[in-house]
Amino acid sequence: MTRPTVCAGFVLIVLICALPAVASAKSTDPAVEETDGLSWYDLRDLGVEGKGWIDTRSFYDRLPAKAEDVVRQPIWSLSHDSAGMCVRFITDANEIQARWELRSKGLAMSHMPATGVSGLDLYVKMDGQWKWLAVGRPTQFPVNSVTLVKGIPAGTREYFLYLPLYNGVLSVEIGVPEGSTLGKAAPYPKDHKPIVFYGTSITQGGCASRTGMVHTALLGRRFGYPVINLGFSGNGRMEPAMADLFAELDPSVYVLDCLPNMNGQMVAERVAPFVKKLRKAHPDTPILLVEDRTYSDAFLVASLRQNNADNRRELRRAYAGLKAEGVEHLYYLPGDRLLRDDLDNLATVDGSHPTDLGFMRQTDAFYEALEPILLGRD
């Protein structure tokens, strides 16, 4: 599959829920395979998160099969990437292995490492907090098999595994020593519906060093909500067909972060109709409109400053117009907050796509905007 060029700004749908205390793991039965003293379990049996639709062509696709006939080909191609998909599981194993089959030979990109494009990222819950534990490094195509971590002290713990951001997977399995228990984590509270992010390459995760470092994943862990990432590199453009698809979802909040892939005219023409379609389907679901991040080199390059200014002017007009028409539960996040002032110029890889530091700064900005929406804290 030809890999599209990564373009600025992706908006993603994020769904993450508060996690209860770890309970005894009920073994997922049966194991896919038992070899060399290991029991292997298919992730599909553990409750994969981050899927907005179940009727997909391939299990790890992000759009339903019917979307192939209604979205542009680049969007359909990018929908095969597993960005935002993850699984929580409980095990008492003292060692955790993983193997996964990739869709594309492109393990890395020129400005994004293989660990973020095609790797796995493992977290463990300790004292009520998610802690990074291990990364699955992809070194070949199509199948990789790695020991994520070994020498784990005795005890039953909850884990979080994130799938590739800019590659797709055909299968993913977790291996633990025979005799260990492994099972699903407890479900999220019923009132913790997913956060849906719609956006650009940034939303999809470019250029995070690990798959759990994109702001959508960071926000999911911080809020304890499931997240759906619908970032499409270079192709987050608020098209009517996308609004029709997203209206089928039932999230806690829609986060619309497409401006890095748009210009002022597109913003003026598309934002209001897109919001109205979502609002017609979901009268009370909050919608957060997000300005584009400030280009890190815009302080010197006038054309970039003008692009930010044009987009933001038209988004403010659309927001004000919608509010004047009586559209409720509509919120706004200014773009100059996303990377802070970035006076150190350390927040992006290329002036546009965040470094891990940039994603952490974006996480803080999104958290401030989403906290009163999700948690009712003014």
What does the main sheet amount to?
5 strands, antiparallel
**What is the gyration radius calculated from CA atoms?**
20 Å
- SS element count, helices: 8
The portion of residues forming beta strands comes to 15-25%
Element string (H = helix, E = strand): EEEHEEHEEEEEEEHHEHEHEHEH
Distance between the termini: 46 Å
- What's the shape? globular
Number of DSSP strand runs:
16
Which ranges are low-confidence, i.e. pLDDT below 50, for 5 or more consecutive residues?
1-26
Notes on the protein architecture:
This protein has 378 residues and is α+β, with helices and mostly antiparallel strands. 24% of the residues lie in helices and 24% in strands. It is built from eight helices and 16 strands. A five-stranded antiparallel sheet has the order 2-3-10-5-8, with no helix packed on it. It has a five-stranded antiparallel sheet with strand order 7-6-9-4-11, with no helix packed on it. The chain has a four-stranded parallel sheet with strand order 12-14-15-16, sandwiched between helices. Helix 7 links the parallel strand 15 (287-290) and strand 16 (330-333). Helix 4 crosses helix 8 (356-375), helix 5 (240-246) packs parallel to helix 6 and helix 6 packs parallel to helix 7. The longest helix is centred in the C-terminal third of the chain and has 23 residues, at 302-324. The N and C termini lie far apart (46 Å).
